Amino acid sequence: MGDLFFSFLEVRMSLTPTTKLEAVNEILSSIGESPVNTLNSGVVDAELAATVLESVSRRFQANGWSFNKEEAYPLLPSTNGEVVLPYNVLTVDQVIGEGNSFTMRGKRMYDKVKHTFNIGKTLKCDIVVLLDFEDLPSPAREYVSLKAARSYQDKTVGAADLHGYQREDEEKAWYEFLATEVEQADYNIFANTQIQHRINRRV
To answer: How far apart are the C-alpha atoms of 59 and 52, rounded to whole Å?
Structure first.
């Protein structure tokens, strides 16, 4: 197991994931599995790794960060008056200028006052969208990859001794991501209660 751990670290330190395939291979390397040449390899372990990666990425992005939050995004009604959300919308943080009258239900907006999906007007909303893995900033991809690798181990071999070492790598990647996020979003991490909440939640 010691050789496996050092092999994983060597791969991780020499390669920062920039594509989904690289991330999947990093996850496979975390338990000593051979890399694949394509995401459509048909290898069961690789398919599971890709599924875990997507799941972790979705949960991570659902928090809403500077790179995947759209402010005052116009949501137009359809011909029947319903406001249908784009396929990649994870959450609607706020409906601007409408108080608490509207909420997200499934992939549609719902009027809680009139008790109907027939809204009939454009809503401007702050929304959180799901981005493809390769559209994430590099620090986010690094964190998601490491967290997915640890989650993958839990679902397969449950390598407890390796797990502890990877947690340290994951924690380091988490704080490196936060440092970048604070810089990009231009806010004070200690004064911003929303970011403090995200730190405390940890995905």
So the answer is: 11
Report pLDDT digits (tens) over 125-171. 999 999 999 999 999 999 999 999 988 888 776 555 555 557 888 99
Choose among 140, 175, 149, 126: nearest CA to 33: 149
Domain boundaries, the chain: 2-62+133-201, 69-129
Residue 6's CB: how many other CB atoms inside 10 A? 10
Token representation of residue 37: 């040449």
Enter the pTM of the model. 0.80
CA dist 119 and 61 (Å) reads 28
Are 180 and 66 within 8 A, CB to CB?
Answer: no
CA gap 28, 50 in Å, rounded: 10
Amino acid at 194: Q
3-state SS, residue 94: strand
Amino acid residing at 200? N
Of 13, 29, 16, the closest CA to residue 138 belongs to: 16
Asked if residue 201 lies in contact with residue 63, where contact means CB atoms within 8 angstroms, the answer is yes
